[in-house]
Amino acid sequence: MKKTISILLVLALLCCLVPAAFAAESSETAAAEKLYDMGLLSGTGTDALGNPVFSLDKVPTRAEAVTMLVNLLGKSDVAKAGTWTTPFTDVPEWAQPYVGYAFANGLTSGTGKTSFGSTLPVSADQYLTLVLRALGYKDGTDFSWKDASAFAQKLGITSKDYSSVSKFLRGDIAKISEAALAIDYKNTDVALSQIIELAKGLAAESDTDIPVDQIAAIIEKVTSSNGKLSTEDISAIAKAVAAEYDTGLPVEAIADIAVTIADSKGSDIPVEDITSVAKT
């Protein structure tokens, strides 16, 4: 009788634990799928049905972490279109555009003179440091990389202290990255997701690499006047901003043009005409 009761208690305990395990897996998978749909996360392969496999239970590498950083900046297209030179001899071909872009823009460094450490595991604090850089924060000024977890928690990127996590996984990267999309860029009211959207639109219109902080400034000025931007707004603004940025027009003036374009939403006036009038 006692043995039967013990078995029943064990089974009851397992039933309580299973939903929690599935919930954790579900939240990681949901985050990964959202990032995948946005073009921010690549799978490690596909299953028999052709669906992406994310390998969320695997330890992420430095190459994978830097790739995600470039994606979170909305600069993946710029990275892939560019020609980059680095001193590193251990970067796999698929990661070279991302590591090259990050290195050229001072977003990452190597583990040695000619080594990047592409296959080395990345820790929670190391990855959170990259995410904070994507949001405009500078380690050594705004925070210490050793305190990246606490700073990220303060900003609302995470809900727990990752500094004590013994095993940091790709699933953690997915959850952190997805949460970062809703966080405002430093000193603005502009969410990272909005920056990514406009950055991608700009990359489609021009080869010029417009700095993320300037993209954020343009969006903030437009949204303060017109509220949240629609996909249609982003497309029209991206076309105008790309064209005017290439002419050397100051960002403040470009932002004014973007506001005028958003104000004219729904009209039949071509964007080029609106831009021309706004510049006079």
Task: Map the helices and strands.
Blueprint: H1 2-37, E1 45-46, E2 52-53, H2 62-72, H3 76-81, H4 96-104, H5 124-134, H6 148-155, H7 170-180, H8 192-205, H9 212-226, H10 231-245, H11 251-263, H12 271-279
Helix pairs in contact: 1-7, 2-4, 2-5, 5-7, 8-9, 8-10, 9-11, 10-11, 11-12
Give a structural overview.
With 280 residues, this protein is an all-alpha fold. The chain has 12 helices and 2 strands, in the order αββααααααααααα. It has helices at 2-37, 62-72, 76-81, 96-104, 124-134, 148-155, 170-180, 192-205, 212-226, 231-245, 251-263, 271-279; strands at residues 45-46, 52-53. The chain has a two-stranded antiparallel sheet. A hairpin with a 5-residue loop joins β1 and β2. α5 (124-134) packs parallel to α7, α8 packs across α9 and α11 (251-263) crosses α12. The radius of gyration is 22 Å and the shape is globular. The N and C termini lie far apart (91 Å). The relative contact order is 0.10.
Poorly predicted spans: 17-24
Give the overall shape: globular
Main-sheet strand order equals 1-2
Largest sheet: 2 strands, antiparallel
The average pLDDT value, as a whole number, equals 84
Proportion of beta-strand residues: under 5%
SS class: mainly alpha
Give the end-to-end Cα distance, rounded to a whole number of Å.
91 Å
Question: Roughly what percent helix?
Answer: 55-70%
Number of E strands: 2
